[in-house]
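Project standup — Tuesday

K.O.: blocked on the structure for the chain from last sprint. Re-posting the sequence here as requested.
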Amino acid sequence: MQTFRHETILSFPKYVPVYPYQDLIASKTCLFPAAMVDYSIIKPKTTARKDGMILRRLLIYLRDYKKESILGPLFKLLEASFELIVPLVMAAIIDTGIASRNSGFIIRYGLLLILLGIIGLTCSITAQYFAAKAAVGFSTKLRHALFSHIQSLSFSEIDALGTSTLITRMTSDINQVQSGVNLTLRLFLRSPFIVFGAMAMAFTIDVKSALIFVIAIPLLSVIVFTIMSFSIFMYKHVQAGLDKVLLLTRENLTGARQIRAFHKEEEECERFLKENDRLTSLQTFTGGITSLMNPGTYIVINAAVIVLIHTGAIQVNLGTLTQGQVVALLNYMSQILVELVKLANLIVSMTKALACADRIQAVFEITSSISEQEADTGNPDASPDTPAVRFDHVSLTYRGAGAESLSDLSFTAKKGQIIGIIGGTGSGKTSLVHLIARHYDASKGTVFVNGADVKHSPLNSLQKSIGIVMQTSVLFHGTLRENLRWGKEDAAEEEMWEALKLAQAKEFVMEKEGGLDFVIAQGGQNLSGGQKQRLCIARAIIRRPEILILDDSSSALDFATDAKLRKAIQELKGNMTVFIVSQRAASLLHADQILVLDDGRLAGSGTHEELLKTCSIYQEIYNSQTALNS
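H.V.: unblocked you, prediction finished:
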């Protein structure tokens, strides 16, 4: 199995203020078929984990919004308190004002109703403000934390997770959790307060009539919580289905040219429609179950209203209740109905939020397989003669792979040397250079960089000392200047032009409108393949890394430009060690050492002349290419 393709200078920042996180994740695109993506890694480690525990773990991102989280529900309770007074005022107007035709009393209490409405509206708006501020702030911090955590994962975890599910969790899932937090702060205390407050107020009016409330509320609770428990389970499957639809959408958009080239439009449309129909059916079924909540609650409430009217009418005739008190009881029952509808919507939103929170927490629980073990501050024994890179019986097995991708590799690269790596497709060339940068850890053996075991070297300093240009050229939306500064944040304009000159990109950049301020479209769509490759090489060269890795990064260049680039790299000052992965034997003729890989094993090493005499695989590669070019 080959590693996924990625290109940028190493040492990814934990927070990226300039570029959208979708672009950074896209730069780590896993090119494996969808069937090979291991989704098991994103399942919760503890199946018995409860939703409340999940939400509590994520709510730590609300700690900077404690004031808003308290004031929001508090103002909602104030609004609810004033709302509970309204039926009593209405009862007084009916029993005293209307019964005695006292217009002054009616006006005074009517103004009191208006005042209660204004105070309630003010409290509601204030609560909405604090709840929205807390929810948006929570989702912002959660998104930053999740993005930072994803950046801390190694290439193995990114391979297994897949880009589509990460994007879904960083966008749709977090938005759903944000909505759940917002509604919870607004309604979680208010709705139960109104429900039980209305029941308590009913007892102050008439105990016998209030017993109807005592029976209705538990029945409503059974309906609501039964549907909620089922909905939580189903919404997790809905979000998983959304992952698959997003994966297909992303594959079709990024591979639109290839799909058209092979006339696969109809097949891809059928694939998408099939998966989309499956998601639609799942959402329809889940929504159908959830939609039973409103009619179920309405049946119970309306039945309770009928009983209440019947009981109230009898008691009015007997003189134990007044007409105003019966109206007040009906108002309290109506308030319960309205609040239970709100509570039902809150529960639907919370079930979605809990399902999404579970998926987000599952990503947080994944730890990187690459960790710094007893990290040293450096290698005090290193000397000018210490090899830049040394492999000591190194093997590599990818997660889930049955066989080794690299087997028992041993070689030494001295400082200042140019090391060529060549071999057939799938021979392990890219896997080898990933081990140098410690994108993966060796399954067996040891990789040394500047005399130090990479597993015991500070990861950040190791990656800063390495510049790598991957097979797929990835540029980010923004100016050319901003893209170059990914390699060196404080790079001066002169350094940028020098790097562009070395990468054979200066000429075409000068022809672009704005020069260094030329705006690059997302993914570099407004540049040719060769232009993108040269800009990526310039971005890696600009910081003058100790080790420069060019992973088949000149495949789109013509032979003349490729020759100029190799000559420029040879003339670079300092002890920069350069690894060049190439399919072209002509690109490696002047390398100080060429490594020939065959099915993950080192088939030969030496100079071009030595390999022509001793390595049959290299002879075959060179002769076949020479024959084609002649």
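K.O.: great, moving the ticket to review. Residues 50-364 form a domain with the ABC transporter transmembrane region fold fold (CATH 1.20.1560.10). DSSP finds 21 helices and twelve strands in the chain.
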